[in-house]
Amino acid sequence: MDERTYAAEAAPGEEVTVAGWVHELRDLGGIAFLILRDTSGRIQVKFEKEAMADDLVETGLGAHRESVVAVTGAVEAEERAPTGVEVVPESVEVLAPADTELPLDPSGKVEAELSTRLDNRTLDLRRAEGQAVFEVRAEVLRAVRAAFRAHDATEINTPKIVATGTEGGTELFPITYFGREAFMNQSPQLFKQLVAGSNVERVFEIGPIFRAEEHNTPRHLNEATSIDFEGAFCDHHDAMDVCEAVVVAAYEAVAENCRDQLEALDLAEEFEPPEPPFPRFTYEDAIDRVNATGALDEQLVWGDDLPTEGERALGRDVGGHYFVTDWPAEIKPFYIMDHDDDPDLSTGFDLMHPRMELVSGGQREHRRERLIEGFERQGLEPEAFEYYTEMFRYGMPPHAGWGLGGERLLMTMLELDNIREAVLFPRDRQRLSP
Length: 434
Ligand code: ATP
Ligand code: MG
Description:
The chain is an alpha+beta fold. It folds into two domains: about 5-95, CATH 2.40.50.140; about 120-280 and about 320-420, 2-Layer Sandwich (BirA Bifunctional Protein, domain 2). The protein is about 30% helix and about 25% strand. It contains twelve helices and 18 strands. The strands form four sheets. Strands 6-10-11-18-17-16-13-12 form an eight-stranded mixed sheet. α4 (about 130-150) crosses α6 and α8 (about 285-295) packs across α9 (about 310-320). The longest helix is centred in the first third of the chain and has 23 residues, at about 130-150. The protein is elongated and about 90 Å long. The chain binds adenosine-5'-triphosphate (ATP) and magnesium ion.
């Protein structure tokens, strides 16, 4: 469109064309208002029925809610208008009419079920809250990229169609690849390690991961966005430092650049970036603390994974982000390095938000013999991973890294009840389209 002015930028004294959706029609008799909405905000269009041509009034007031219209006219100051200005139309063109029946109400006055909203995402994202979540998501990704660059990491993209999963197992989606069996990748883990072992040294990736998890929870998706880091010559402490910096940078950018969005989400008052450094305590301390809360019917013993209820109790106890370090080697994957002085303990860590796990990471096993032993201990066939283990023959530096669930970061940051709110078109057990 030529010469279109955003609603929020129309200034008194100008002649403009504004274009957007009919948010509301208010007919007061002799005078009527059309509230036009675009990505920048809303503007009032005033129809004085007696003073204006009949067809102009008919076109403007005949456009149903959510129809797309272009209005040309003079902008005038008007104190009583929602934004302090209004357009006195000279012409109105309906660019795309909307049905009179809408599957949901984009003004948000009538609440809709999540499934109805997801089925009609285009309409749903016309609500200020819906738009705000995805504007924040874009800002988070921008800030995360900048934080990684500030830590000398290079952005990479690794394949999502793979011959073997990262950890094998039941969480893989099989596909047919020219008559051969292949899978959708669960994690860029092995690939990012292969690049960290090159001269590139520090890498990050923001991309999809696919998990055929059977369960249907408010914090699991079958296609999620993983924010991954891997750095050569890093140990698990260095990796936690980068992780903390990236998470804090994301919050700070949102606090600074997403005021309107936080307002729309009713978070503006309380929104505060978490304070680094995040406490780091060991798995052993974590289970003691969980047991001390009395939240679980059965006491945890060394070697147990933290159950969801335990994570929540600990989260309430700590009250902010925290790392859990030194997990039992047995419950961490083969590529995580164990402590040399205690092989039952791994260098694996998780970053927790009081509500849930956000990150898993650790120092990686870079010694080929030990890596292969790890495969065998986990019941995996090292032969299937030769493309990976071979590279450990040619100078694989010590390295460490982590993976952060992008939607979980957003969900916890914006206090969303369901992870599906943080994805445009979520994939779960029931949902394959849109
Ligand atoms: P959980 O125990 O919560 O299911 P996980 O330990 O299986 O997670 P990891 O393999 O450690 O997950 O993946 C690293 C991060 O990726 C997780 O901490 C989480 O933020 C995110 N993530 C993993 N699986 C999913 C999923 N199915 N949906 C959304 N995010 C996920
Ligand atoms: Mg994990």
